[in-house]
Design brief:
alpha/beta; 173 residues
């Protein structure tokens, strides 16, 4: 069975995903890391080809990874906009369908409160050093928040350590 960690950038999908995979004895795949390894640096790709092309490439990569890993149990950390963006709703819906058909999705979000969640996520994003702009990141997060809140077979709302979040996921599973 596959588990898909979903949520905004900075929610802890990669960190939690690695620990969860170890705990379950599953393989771990970070979609963003795979994109960087197999296609291009995401920031550079976005600059040269645009977000729509990125969505297309990312969806194709996801499909390839599912085929490659079909015989394994895998924890996937999905890209932040993979299931929640207003650009190319056809791709987003297809991604959602593939996730539904292929396993269980787990939403990671710091809080159910949009203001608390936004503050936490944007602060984490800005600390990554990508030259992001607070107002733009807050606006993007607030725009996607309702979409995220409608996702996830399991929803985990926590700002604790990755170990606590893994424990919460294990209980929910």
């Amino acid at each position: 069975m596959h588990l898909f960690l979903i949520g905004p950038g900075g929610a802890g999908k990669s960190t939690v995903g690695e620990k969860l995979a170890v705990r379950l004895g599953y393989a771990f795949v970070d979609l963003d890391a795979q994109f960087c390894e197999r296609v291009a640096n995401i920031r550079e790709y976005l600059k040269s080809d645009g977000y729509e092309a990125y969505l297309e490439q990312n969806a194709a990569l996801f499909d390839a990874l599912l085929l490659e890993r079909c015989q394994q149990n895998v924890v996937f950390a999905l890209s932040s906009g993979f299931l929640a963006t207003d650009i190319r709703p056809d791709i987003v819906e297809r991604n959602r369908q593939r996730v539904r058909e292929s396993g269980r999705s787990i939403l990671l979000m710091p809080s159910k409160d949009v203001d608390v969640a936004c503050g936490c996520i944007v602060t984490r994003q800005l600390k990554r050093g990508f030259g992001l702009i607070r107002d733009k990141e807050e606006s993007r997060f607030r725009q996607r928040f309702p979409d995220y809140m409608a996702l996830g077979d399991i929803q985990i709302f926590a700002m604790g350590s990755p170990e606590v979040i893994v424990h919460n996921i294990m209980v929910a599973l």
